[in-house]
Amino acid sequence: TWSADGTIVFVAGDELRRVPAAGGSVEPVTRRLPGQGFHWFPAFLPDGQRILFLAGGLPDVSGLYLADLSGGEITRLG
Questions:
Q1: Model's pTM, two decimal places?
Q2: 51-75: per-residue pLDDT in tens?
Q3: Quick check: 51 and 71 in contact, CB under 8 A?
Q4: What proportions of the chain, in percent to the nearest 5, are helix, strand and coil?
Q5: Which of 10, 22, 62, 77 is deepest in the core (most CB within 10 A)?
């Protein structure tokens, strides 16, 4: 997924990474929690700083999540 400010978020090795569209260093956006198998289908929210994504794995840690590009914990939404 590509934000209006030129940040690209993509799946790499079952987790999400980001890179500036102009090039530069690839940085992690998410890290899998114990029991999670993958992070897929990232989509920017209109603010361009938060991303929704799906996490697969065990029932207690799979579902829809929110990640903030400024870092911190991911939040399970459902």
A1: 0.90
A2: 999 999 999 999 999 999 988 789 9
A3: no
A4: 0, 50, 50
A5: 62
